[in-house]
Each structure stands twice: as C-alpha cells, then as structure tokens.
Amino acid sequence: MPDVTELGTVKVKKRKKHTTMESRIQRAGLLFALPWIIGLLSFYAYPLFSSMYYSFTNYNVISPSQWIGVENYITLFNDNLFWKGLKNTLIYTLMQVPLAICFGVTLAMLLNLRIWGQGILRTIYFLPSLLPVIATTILWQWLLNPQFGLVNAFLDKIGLTGPGWLGDPTWAKPSLVIMTLWVLGNSILIYLAGLQDISKDYYEAADIDGANWFQKSFHITLPLLTPVIFFNMIMGVIHSLQEFTMPYALTYGTGNPAESLLFYSMYLYNNAFLYMKMGYASAMAWILFVVVMAITVILLKSSGKWVFYQGDD
Amino acid sequence: MKMGFWKLSRLMIISLVLLFAAVGCTSNQSSGEKDGDDGSAGESSGGEEKVEITFWHNWETGPSGESIKESVAKFNETHPNIEVEAVYVAPDGGDSVSSKLVTAVAGGNPPDVMLASRYGIAEYKEALEPVGELAERDGITEDMFYPWAWGEASYEGELLALPYDGTARALFYNKEHFREAGLDPENPPKTIEELEAAAEKLTIKEDGKYTRFGFIPWFGEGWLYTWGWSFGGEFVDNNGVVTANDPKIVEALAWETDFAEKFGIKDVTSFVSSAGTNATNPFFTGQLSMMVTGNWMLSQIEEYAPDLDYGVTYIPTPTGDNFTTFVGGRVLLIPKGVKNLDASWEFVKWMTASEEGQSIKKITGEFAAMPEVNEKLYADDPRQNVFLEVLPNGKHRPVVLAGNMMWDELAKAPDLVMNKQGTPQEILDGITEKINKEIENKKAQLQ
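The joint structure predicted for all components is written out below.
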C-alpha cells in the first residue's frame, strides 16, 4: 500500500512538473510571438475590419466618414464599369489559369527528364520570374508591338498577319495571358517538387507491367501531381482575380483599348486614390473577397473528385 | 544546468518585453513631445531659430529635377531663417501624387509644401490649407497670373493653392515633309480643312502598308480637351455643370474618329499603339509629319533629333482664327495641419509669385504662371512665339469635384467611338450624365 501511494505521488509530481513546463514553454512561445501577433492584429486585422466598416460609409480618407448603409453596394451594382471590370477579370482568369496549369505542368515534366543540361534549363526557365513585373511588361510591349514587334515579324515571315495585340480589344487580354505564361518559374518550381515527391515504387511497378512513358505520365504522374496542381490552381485563381500591375502599367489606368483591359482591381484603385471614394473602393474590395471566396470554395468542393493523394485508397 | 537555462530564458523574455515596452514608450514620448513642440515652434517661427520645412516633389531627374534643386538652393540662400529640404516622392501614375498627400494628411504627418498637378486639387481640397487669406494679406492678386493659372487653382472662388507653371500645346510640323509633298513650309494649315488636306498629301502608303502618316488627331497631346476647345466647345457652364456633350465637342470627337475611319481605324490604332517615345517618337523618326504636342517637346527635339527641320504653329480651328491652347501645369500647395504655416507660405510665395523663383522655370522650357516673367524669359526664343501668343487665351480643364474621373472618361472617348461602343453623341451624353451625377453626390457628401 505505501508503495502504491508513493508511486502515485511521484506520478502526480511528475505530471505537475510536466504541465508547468509545458505551460511555461507555451507562455514563452506566446511572448516571443507577441510582437508578430500585435503586428498582425494592427496591420492586418484592424485595416481589414475597418475597410468593412468604411464600405458602408462615405469616406474620402480626409474628411470624417458618414454612415450610408448599403448605398455603396447598390450604386456598385448599377455601375457600368464595375461590371465591365468584373467581366474582364473573370474572362482573363478563365483563360489564364487553365493555360498556366497546362504550360506549367508540361514544362515541369520536361524539366524533370534526366537529360544533359537539366540544371541550366531549369535556371533559364526560372529566370523571368526574377524580373520586376514592370520590366516584363515593357519588354512584352515591344515584342508584341503590331508594327515593329518581333512576334509579328515572325508571323509575317511564315505568311501570317499578326493581330494588333495590345491595341486590339479582342487580342488585348490574350496578349496579357501570353505575358504571364512567360513568368511561370515559381509554379514550375512547385510542380518540380511535386514530381520528385512521387514515390519511385509506382514507376517500378509500372515498368514491370511494361507500361510506356505516356501510360506512366497519364496514369501515375498526373494523378499523383493533382494535389500540387490543385494548390497552384487556387493560388493562380486568387492571383489573377487580383491582377493589377500589368494592365495598370500598360494602360496607365485607362483600360484601353475599348476598356478591354479595365481590370477589377484597377477600377478599385482609381476609385480609392484618384476619385477619392475610399468607401466605394472598400465595398469593391469586399465584393472581390466574396467572389474569390466563392470560387475557392467551389474548387475545394470539386477537389474530392479529381485530386488524389499518395497512399490514399 | 537546466535551472540555469530556464533562468536565462526567463531573463531573456523579460528583457525582450522591457525592450519593446521601452521602444514603445520612447516613440510615444517623442511623438508627444513633437506635438507639444508644434505649438511653440509655430509661435516662435518669427524668431532667430532656423525653421526646417519639407518640400515634396516628383521631379528628380532631367531638367525638371535640376530646376527643383536650383530653386531650393536659391531659396535657402536668400532666406537664412528657413531651410527647405526637397524630398522626392514617386508619382502614382502620370503626374499625380494625391494618394500620398491624402494619406500623409490623414496620418497627421504631412509635408510642409508640395508640388502637385494643378488639375484635380479641388477633389482633395479638404487636405489643403486654403491660401486665399494669406495671398490677400501679401498683395498677391489674380491679375499677376494668367487667367488659366489662377482659375485652375481656385474652386468656386476660393484660392486653394498658388499656380506654379504652365504647359501649352501647339501643332508641330516637319518642314522637310512639307517641301516633299509640295506644301508651303512657311504657311502651315490654319483651318481643320487645310489640316486634313495637308495630312492626306503627307501620308505615304506603300504596298498596302503605311510608311508615314501625315497626322493623327489624338496622337501626342491631341486630347478631346485640345480639340473640343479648338472647335469652340466649352466643357463646363457658368454654374459648374459639366457640358461635355456641347455640340461643338461632339463635332470635334466626330471629326477625330471620321479622320481615323478615312485611313482605316485598324491601321491608325496599330500605328498609335506602336509609337515609341523619346528618341523613337514617330515625329522625330519621320514616320509622322504633324503632331499636336506640348512646349516641353522643344527640349526633347534638341536632345533626340537636333537636325529635325520643324515648325511650330497654332492648333488649327474650323474657322482659321480664335486660336487657343490647352494649358496644364502645377501648383505649390500647403497641406492641412502643417507645423510652420508661415515658413511654408514664404516658400510657396517665393516660388510662385516672385520673379526670382519663377525665372528658374526656364531650365525646363515650360512657362511661368506669371505673364510678365515669360516675356522676359523667352523674349529671344522664336520657337516659343506661337505658345506665348496663345497663352493668354489658353484654356484650363474645369475645376469640378469629379475632375479626375472626367479626365479618364474623356480620354477614353475616342477609343470607345472607334471601337464602335457608341456614337460620339451617345458616348459624350453618357459621360456628361455620369460626371454631373458624381459631382452632385460629392456635393451632397460635403454638406
């Protein structure tokens, strides 16, 4: 009996010491993280929630704001340029994201082949991602120049008449998509990591069964790459719904030609900082948030059908 | 050992927390002290102590940057008790720095003086210290400046800032091309009809491809404002109501787009979107024979195409008289809540309303806001003659509460018409309605 109690107390003591240690570590961790927590709250949470408040007000940054209820939202739904911006942005996303995935996966698979110069090639394909967006934009503006551009000169040589690219309302958005497909370095890097992650066992088993390269690609590589594709798809959608820098630099905020490059976030920026309608712009930002959220949720829901994880049955 | 480690880590945490607390305190304290200082500094600015003020500008390089440096150096030299520090702030796009100003004012830490595009200041007038009373006190009056300068710096009779300079537009033409095409280089087109005829003669098409355009109305500085005024239109009436659908402006827009249609909209737009800037400006490279552009182009031609044989003439009008020009330019403004209003005002006054300060504009080749100064600066420069002649008759964009939106909308108008989004009348009716509604909303907000 005494032995047992002694044992018990020892156990209790041990546990007590354990919990205090744990809580101490926890406290220390919290204290260390405190500067970042404070930063996060004051520089992210506060602006986030105040922008929600301002979206229900008349706010021009300088004067005190007035509560106007949902008027901003109602005006927005009757605003021609709001719809145009939304439409342009969605069309662009619909073109850009699937193409970026196709190109990214293809390039990553090619760069994953064990061939001579693999490292050099990977570096070359990553290099454009190191360029500032503005530099990329100006470079492509010259390449796509309808009269003197290299792209149209090449098309001319093979007997085709190139379009007006950025000067033509129908070709302006595709031109932008082409520009973004040139800077896929970051997503290629993620795809490459995903490819390396696929267990060799599958390929060995397929080899034994006599599968060829195509069969291996379509039945092993691609299905097992879907988690990475899914990740890049979500990031791509979020990114292209917020596309701002390229069209802004190209058109100085006007969205020319014929408002075909008027992107949602550009109109948002103009409202906030040029037209002094910060409340209106805040409302736009929250609508964009809802749109991004909705699309992400839909993609997430659909992912069960086409995303396969290794080791899953 | 273990205890030692824990003691150490606890000590570290405590010291870290203290450190942060200390930093927080000192920054609080110093800002508090600053606030306290403001009042007393304002009172003692007349004393012997040197007052330091910050001057925000967006001109760092080239002749404009030089003019800022020289102005500040000269002011500091002649004003021993004020020290101006020029600080470059990058523009948001074009010439606008309003977003930076507005955030600085809202944050309670504005610069003392800022150089800003004159156009659009009414939209953020709550961020400005109106200078009307100070100007009146120091005898600075409307008649010292061009009407466009003073007019564009005031909103409903209230002077918001002092006008600093002016930029004007005219028709530049290539004399060599004129001789080639059998036109008289000393007798450039004066009417719209003559302009069209000359443009047709100057245009060269080889194998179905244009190698040279005589003229493209909206290229360069051929904004709808430029042509609207040249056609005799007015963009705003006496009550501040926008009239962008003035029949004369509709006519101007229709003329611009008809012009494009004559040469093929696709060819013209692809030429415009291909056009280079600076050294590759199509006017310099001989791909374009005539263009409407601003007086700043004079120094660019000197730099990039010194051998170009060119002339400068009035922007043609339908009748061949009543020449006018679209004048833009900058103001020097004082943000609301500055610490040293007197010192700021002193600098603004010297820059904008003194011959010494205004003369420095010569470096940039742009115009002073004071007619008197320009006459002295450019008396011996014949290239500036046309500009100087039309300047007193120059027009400024309307000062309304939705000026920036109006600019954007009007800038898009030719593009929309050419891409068949509507007729000139429809597009301009739409813009007029939109801008007037916007102005009404903003006015209601201010009350």
